[in-house]
Design brief:
Distance between the termini: 24 Å
Order of helices and strands: HEHEHEHEHEHEHEHEH
Strand order of the largest sheet: 7-6-5-4-3-2-1-8
Number of helices: 9
Bound molecules: pyridoxal-5'-phosphate
Number of strands: 8
Largest sheet: 8 strands, parallel
Radius of gyration: 16 Å
Number of domains: 1
CATH superfamily: Alanine racemase
Shape: globular
Length: 214
């Protein structure tokens, strides 16, 4: 049985992270049944969207500049990397122009590396306490995303995933108690997806394990 089926049995969606791979490799996975793909660059995801089947569900998982939202707003399903209110505003504006709703995840900084993007727990809470996001009717805040420290230390990685799950639970009960849409925890990559699955991931983002080393 393949990885996608194993995950599906636990109710976890596999996002095939196809960055750097050519469209032909995505099509190979598509022909094996994969429909959800993740990319982290605007130019690359747009080029692949153009040439690949239109029933693919595209997820944007990288840092997103506000001035580039307009290039993906017509087709993107979910954006995992919300790290400011201004980005959310721009996504709302561009989604509305396209007559669509775009699903968004708040990215949290759970790793020890400084280089990774995302809110602290306090910043995420402060954003939601402002209430301004409620006017952004063309975005749907569906949950949280995070990346663990790139480390062999499984205890550390597990702690970080637990931390993200804790943030999800707190936001859910404080701000989304009656929202069935707020249900996603995007965590886990090729090296740590098993730990993420054990700690409550609903979306895992896996690249090299599927496509080979970049
Ligand atoms: C590249 C990437 C992944 C997938 O990484 P692999 O180690 O190849 O599985 C997951 N999430 C993000 C945000 C990425 O940039």
């Amino acid at each position: 049985m393949n990885l996608r089926n194993i995950l599906e049995q636990s109710g976890i969606t596999l996002i095939a992270v196809s960055k750097t791979y050519p469209p032909e490799r995505l099509l190979e996975e598509y022909n094996k049944g994969q429909r959800v793909f993740g990319e982290n660059k605007v130019q690359e995801i747009t080029a692949k969207y153009e040439v690949l089947p239109k029933d693919i569900q595209w997820h944007f998982i990288g840092h997103l500049q506000r001035n580039k939202v307009k290039y993906i707003a017509s087709f993107i399903d979910t954006i995992h990397s919300i790290d400011s209110f201004e980005l959310l505003q721009e996504i709302h504006k561009q989604a509305q122009k396209n007559g669509r709703t775009i699903k968004c995840l708040l990215q949290f900084h759970i790793a020890q590396e400084e280089t990774k993007f995302g809110f602290s727990k306090e910043e995420g809470i402060a954003l939601l306490e402002q209430n301004d996001w409620k006017a952004l009717t063309s975005v749907e805040i569906c949950g949280v995303m995070g990346m663990a420290t790139f480390s062999e230390d499984k205890t550390l990685v597990r702690e970080e995933f637990k931390q993200l799950k804790g943030i999800f639970e707190q936001l859910k009960s404080s701000f989304f108690p009656n929202s069935p849409h707020f249900k996603e925890i995007s965590m886990g990559m090729s090296g740590d997806w098993e730990i993420a699955a054990e700690e409550g991931a609903t979306l895992v983002r896996i690249g090299s394990l599927i496509f080979g080393n970049r």
